[in-house]
Design goal:
The protein is α+β, with helices and mostly antiparallel strands. The chain has helices at 2-38, 83-86, 98-109, 129-135, 219-226, 243-248, 276-293; strands at 65-76, 113-114, 126-127, 141-147, 152-158, 167-179, 184-199, 209-213, 216-218, 255-259. It has two domains: 1-45, no CATH class; 57-293, no CATH class.
Amino acid sequence: MKKAGLFAILFLVTGSMLVQGQEQTTDTTKLTDQATWSGINLVYKKDHIFDKKPIAYPYVREADVMWSKIVWRQIDLREKMNQALYFPTEPIGGRMSLIDALLDAIDNGGLQAYRADDDLNEFKEMMSYQDVLAEFEAEDRVTEVFNVETSQYDTTFIKGEIRTNEVQQIMLKEMWFFDRKRSVLDVRIIGLCPIRVLAAEGDSVQESVVRKKLFWVKFPEARPFLAKVETFNAFNDAELRSYDEIFYKRFFDGFVVQESNVYNNRMIRQYTVGSENLLEAERIENLIFQFEHDLWEY
């Protein structure tokens, strides 16, 4: 009986060791597959970012909005706080810049783009992906090149190139409102517009660069795509935020360039000059936050 019990114990121990060996082999195989899949050596498979959904907004009724104001905010991606939206200029692993994420969503995800020419209505005329490429001047074209050897013109096909590193600014259209049910001043981003910054032609000192609005997208429609794209976190590589989280938690810095007005939606620079632009932007910001401050007694 003792021998039988000893053999049973040895059998269980041996079986357990074999199962553990198989699990280790399986884990090693999974790690190898993940390393090949991501292009980066990792110790675990990253599934969280690809399963993310946009952060749900609190429900807001029209009857509860007792005050609101629409402003347009410009974000300079060259500022240190905003560099997570600009880099990497070329996709690295699962990370890509904000403009690359938007272009991929427009081309492959069905995100609708709208023309940025009409400042009175940003979401009026739809654009196809080819129209977006035309705004980048990146459409494929055929041209005639003179051949010195044959003294004739040869037809040459030139592949279009999208220079996303030229997108150095972002325009946001957002609504600030006071929700009396929750007693909070809240904000919702309505639209997003990338801006190309190009060197101006000529020797004009007053205008050294040209800013060109490329297209608008409705931010609520873009959120499902932006929620699945991770960005760099300088403080923790295990907690990479998505673009949706950056905009939801407002981890960016910008300044107001326009507010809703009676003058055909004129921009601040149309009625102010130089440093007065920043003073006017600061006045609008203070007006928004002063409204909430004046509701309470201290």
